[in-house]
Each structure stands twice: as C-alpha cells, then as structure tokens.
Design brief:
By secondary structure, the protein is mostly helical. The protein contains eight helices and no strands. The longest helix is centred in the last third of the chain and has 26 residues. The radius of gyration is 17 Å and the shape is globular. The N and C termini lie far apart (36 Å).
Length: 187
C-alpha cells in the first residue's frame, strides 16, 4: 500500500522547470499517467490480467511480462515514428477479443495466449510512444507507462484470481469487457 501511495505522489507531482532532473520526473509522471487517460488502455490492461488469471499457472506471470515487453517495443516504434497501420482499430480489437476470450472460458496454451496478447501490446505501446511529451526522458517515460500497465495487469490478475472460484462471474466480466470494447470502438 505504501508503494502505491509513493508512486501516486511521484506521478502527480509537478516539478518546477528550473530544477535539475525535471525531465526524468515529468517523463516518468507522464508515462505513468498515460495508461490511465483512456478507457481503452485501462480495459485492455485489466483484461490481460483477467485472462492470465483465467489461464492460471505460468500464464499468471508470462502473459503480463510478455505484454509489457512487446508494449515497450511498440513504444519504441511510436517514439521513432515508424508507422504501424490501424493502431486505434488494433487497440479496440484487443479489448473486444480479450473480453470474448474471457467470456468464452476456453483454455489456451500459454504460448498462444502470450503471442496473441503480445501482438495487441504493440498497438498499445505504439500509442504510448506516439504521445510522449516533448522534453520527456524516453527511459523515464517508458518505465512510467510500463509500471502503470503492470499495476493494471496486477489489478486484473487479482480480480480474476478472486473470481475464478465463481467462474460465472469471471465469464460475466468478459462480457462486460467485450461490451465496453464495442463502445470504445463504435461509441
């Protein structure tokens, strides 16, 4: 709890521009805050955690870790300006498809689930990378959005783990995510 509070304070701090190292702090804060600025990113990150909880065992750590690794690759592509087509459609599809998979409730091989989630991560990372504020440190910004994404994955994982004993509730959460994804895509 203390570490969450500390991260929140650091993320919300607005450093004076005359201070040395301000790009590191503002870069981290901008990166950490970015995933929380839109329902599309929040839904996708939480859904990765829910899906990992549903799959269980190794997927509980490989799915979030693989997602974050590929999201950082996507972020680098976005920061360098290398184009990825249909980024917004890929982000919306990630929410809808992850929601359907959670609602459907069929087990996946962890490697196949990680490949699917990682392909979605490229779109999310690209969006994060394209929106890096001018003057932000690339490393600090990237660490910020990676840690925020991890926090959302862990929230989904904890929620999903709590719901697995009542699998009907987990499937219903998948339906809710799917409907929210449709709203993001077409609303």
């Amino acid at each position: 709890m203390r570490s969450i509070l500390a991260i929140s304070v650091v993320a919300s701090a607005t450093p004076a521009l005359a201070h040395r190292g301000q790009h590191l702090i503002s870069g981290f804060a901008a990166g950490f805050g970015h995933p929380f600025t839109g329902p599309d990113h929040v839904l996708a990150m939480v859904s990765v955690g829910l899906f990992a909880a549903f799959l269980g065992r190794r997927a509980t750590w490989t799915l979030p870790a693989g997602f974050i690794a590929m999201m950082l690759v996507g972020g680098a592509l976005g920061m360098t300006g290398i184009g990825i087509p249909a980024v917004e459609a890929g982000i919306a599809a990630s929410i809808i498809i992850l929601g359907i998979l959670i609602a459907w409730g069929r087990s996946w091989h962890p490697a196949a689930a990680m490949a699917l989630a990682s392909s979605f991560a490229l779109f999310h990372g690209y969006a994060h990378g394209m929106e890096i504020p001018e003057g932000s440190g690339v490393l600090a910004y990237s660490v910020g959005f990676a840690l925020a994404s991890l926090a959302l994955h862990l929230f989904g994982l904890a929620t999903g783990t709590g719901l697995t004993k009542q699998s009907q509730a987990l499937h219903i959460s998948g339906v809710v995510v799917t409907l929210a994804g449709l709203w993001v895509a077409f609303g």
